[in-house]
Write a structure and sequence with these properties.
Layout: H1 2-15, H2 20-32, H3 36-45, H4 53-65, H5 69-76, H6 96-110, H7 114-127, H8 132-140, H9 146-155, H10 163-172, H11 182-190, H12 203-217, H13 227-246, H14 261-273, H15 277-290, H16 298-307, H17 311-324, H18 329-341, H19 345-358, H20 363-375, H21 379-392, H22 398-409, H23 413-426, H24 431-443, H25 447-459, H26 468-480, H27 484-497, H28 502-514, H29 518-531, H30 536-562
TPR repeats: 329-362, 468-501, 502-535
GO cellular component, one term: cytoplasm
Region (Disordered): 219-242
Length: 563
């Protein structure tokens, strides 16, 4: 009832002869009613902007709302008043210094000045860790790298009883750097004060996650010990120790947030990055069933559905989103995901482009836009989309991976390697980055380096979730090194993960062929051709193997005649 509020506030201003408190109240009513210029004119007419920080902040917000970001920054100035505030009052009232820093960060972000935006958003959080909007901008817009996020969270002045907030902020930051510690963080958030989760609705999703966790713990596959992997493990252990130290001995106490959507979304994101797409999809369905309008989980839900090729779900979900949220980028992103899953790349490009036009800060839209071009071998357009994403989201490494892949496709191996190493700098524990670096080393003929990269990629995931491509690539590295036994073991493991891959059967047959085991080689060539009849590699080698076997049988026959 902002119109009613403005009506009576106006009478109070008149009767009190423009009392500053009543003028400010009327300006607030105008602002809430979206009469931004009228609120600004009132504050300037009453000469409150220079006299009161709250009035100055409200006037700056009005300027930001009408798009005058430069004037907004000029009005705020470089100082936002005193940043001192007692710990007891934090969270119980708005910290004006933090709010002004947040507004500066928003204004700089709108003007595409990312460096200054990051500086002011960090200042807002350090002034008041309860300023979640600043954290959300930093995380959602991928303004910080993995190490920067960890450093920022360690600098925030949490109170002794703010353990739940620290844990939740930790769970929201990038997942690759805390794959081993995030399970404990989420469990702490979901458990009640007595250590027991008290929401039965989450059991199904948590059971799915527990299955993935159990598979990860039981991983006994080949692991390559490297300094980078040891460094990552040391960092996670230090983080875990820091978390335990701040809990003042209350390790067994939970936070009772098992029914919280934010915690569930963190778990969904974790499952997605672990490659557990089915479990991710199931848990996201549970979240959407509880809250059909939880837009924060939609990009993950749609991405998991694309990985699982659930075209019907994508069609229905995107249709509903465009009806209910036509002004949101995620709705048209859903339509693009449907067309991507249906291999209609022209339609995918059109709707991913619409999503990015509606919200240039929507990172999934830019990635989908680039992927749709890359799927049609249109490298120039794909590179343009990836470059834009890399510029807008400096803490996001996926655009750099896409650029590296496109450079590799164009056989520009030097630039490809530079892009992949840049992605590795931002996220050193992403298995996809490690895999692509292994592919690059293999192409350059450095088999030892390729073995190290592929081995490190496999250590980042459980044996049950190891990507078939990485296992198969490691098998090719062992083949190049003439380590036949290890190569056969890798290809057999790859077949266990993806038994429909004709290339793996052909590669396994080639290994047996090189060892002179012609019967096994012929058998695997036949299996490869049974899965893909147009496999020229398997067909050619099958002919060679059959001729060699015939020659061997003929030689054995003549030897028997001589004897």
């Amino acid at each position: 009832m902002y119109t009613t509020a403005a009506f009576f506030a106006d009478k109070l201003v008149t009767l009190s002869a423009f009392d500053p408190r009543n003028v400010y109240m009327l300006a607030q009513a105008f602002y809430m009613g979206k009469h931004y210029r009228r609120a600004l004119a009132l504050l300037q007419f009453a000469d409150l902007v220079e006299q009161d920080d709250q009035a100055r902040y409200l006037a700056a917000k009005c300027l930001a709302e009408v798009g005058n970001h430069e004037e907004c920054l000029t009005m705020l100035g470089e100082e936002a008043g005193s940043s001192s505030q007692s710990a007891d009052s934090m969270g119980s009232s708005i910290n004006l210094h933090s709010a002004m820093c947040l507004l500066r960060g928003k204004a700089h972000s709108a003007m595409d000045n990312q460096a200054q935006a990051v500086t002011w958003l960090k200042a807002a959080l350090k002034a008041d860790p309860f300023c979640y909007e600043a954290l959300q901008m930093l995380m959602d817009n991928h303004m910080l790298t993995q190490s920067d996020e960890e450093e920022l969270l360690q600098q925030l002045p949490f109170r002794a009883d703010d353990t739940w907030l620290r844990l939740l902020y930790t769970a929201k930051r990038k997942k690759y750097g805390q794959m081993t510690t995030l399970e404990g963080t989420l469990d702490r958030l979901e458990e009640g004060a007595n250590g027991v989760s008290h929401m039965d609705d989450d059991h199904e999703g948590n059971d799915a996650a527990d299955n993935v966790i159990h598979a990860r713990r039981s991983h006994n596959g080949a692991q390559v010990s490297t300094s980078a992997a040891d460094h990552a493990a040391t960092g996670e252990a230090a983080q875990d120790e820091h978390m335990r130290a701040e809990d003042n001995g209350n390790i067994a106490r939970g936070c009772g947030l098992s029914g919280c959507i934010d915690v569930a979304v963190c778990r969904v994101e974790w499952l997605y990055y672990m490659g557990a797409y089915q479990e991710c999809y199931d848990l996201s369905c549970t979240v959407i069933e509880r809250d059909p309008y939880a837009l924060e989980v939609m990009p993950l839900h749609l991405a998991a559905a694309v990985e699982l090729r659930k075209k019907n779900e994508l069609f229905l979900r995107s249709h509903r989103l465009t009806e209910e949220y036509p002004e949101h980028a995620v709705a048209w992103f859903g339509v693009g995901c449907y067309y991507l899953a249906a291999d209609n790349y022209d339609g995918a490009r059109r709707y991913f482009g619409k999503a990015t036009a509606m919200d240039p800060c929507f990172a999934p839209g830019w990635l989908g836009f680039g992927h749709a071009f890359a799927a049609q071998d249109e490298s120039d357009q794909a590179m343009a989309a990836y470059r834009t994403a890399a510029r807008r989201f400096p803490g996001l490494h996926q655009p750099l991976i896409g650029m590296g892949m496109e450079y590799a496709r164009m056989n520009n191996l030097l630039l490809s390697e530079q892009m992949l190493h840049a992605a590795h700098t931002i996220s050193p524990s992403d298995p996809l980055v490690l895999h692509e670096l292994g592919v690059m080393a293999f192409k350059l003929g450095d088999n030892n380096a390729a073995e190290g990269w592929f081995g490190r990629a496999l250590t980042m995931q459980s044996s049950a979730l190891s990507p078939e491509a990485t296992v198969s690539c490691l098998g090719h590295v062992y083949r190049k090194q003439r380590r036949w036994k290890q190569a056969v073991a890798m290809f057999e493991k790859a077949l266990g993960l993806a038994p429909w891959q004709a290339n793996t059967y052909a590669a396994l047959g080639f290994i047996y062929h090189l060892q002179g085991k012609l019967a096994l080689a012929i058998s695997n060539y036949h299996k490869a051709l049974g899965l893909r009849a147009d496999d020229s590699f398997a067909a050619d080698l099958l002919g060679v193997a059959l001729r060699e076997e015939c020659e061997q049988l003929e030689s054995d026959f003549h030897s028997d005649l001589i004897l």
